[in-house]
Amino acid sequence: MNWIQVLLIAAVIALLVYLLRSRTNAKAKAWVKVGYVLFVVLAVYAILRPDDTTVLANFLGVRRGADLITYALIIAFVFTTLSTYLRFKELELKYARLARAVALEGARTPER
């Protein structure tokens, strides 16, 4: 095992620990944590056996394993960006409704 492989595996595991600790609230979905663990397992496998990613890439019609990983990361980035955008839009709508409710609750009729 090369030192770069050890470094990459340590980084991936540290990322997993950070992500799992940051999502310890009750609303964290189990499938998100399963996804993190699956990501770590696949990342460690790809780090230890990089030639297998090329075999999988060739099976899927891609020339190199690095290209396949790049395509997968682009898809993951777009998904994450879109998901974050939609979540922020939902929060913005909730805040606007809350602000309206607070404004209406404290509203008084004008005196003449």
Automatic annotation (TrEMBL):
<feature type="transmembrane region" description="Helical">
    <location>
        <begin position="30"/>
        <end position="48"/>
    </location>
</feature>
<dbReference type="InterPro" id="IPR019277">
    <property type="entry name" value="DUF2304"/>
</dbReference>
<keyword id="KW-0812">Transmembrane</keyword>
<dbReference type="Pfam" id="PF10066">
    <property type="entry name" value="DUF2304"/>
</dbReference>
<keyword id="KW-0472">Membrane</keyword>
<feature type="transmembrane region" description="Helical">
    <location>
        <begin position="68"/>
        <end position="88"/>
    </location>
</feature>
<protein>
    <recommendedName>
        <fullName>DUF2304 domain-containing protein</fullName>
    </recommendedName>
</protein>
<keyword id="KW-1133">Transmembrane helix</keyword>
<feature type="transmembrane region" description="Helical">
    <location>
        <begin position="6"/>
        <end position="23"/>
    </location>
</feature>
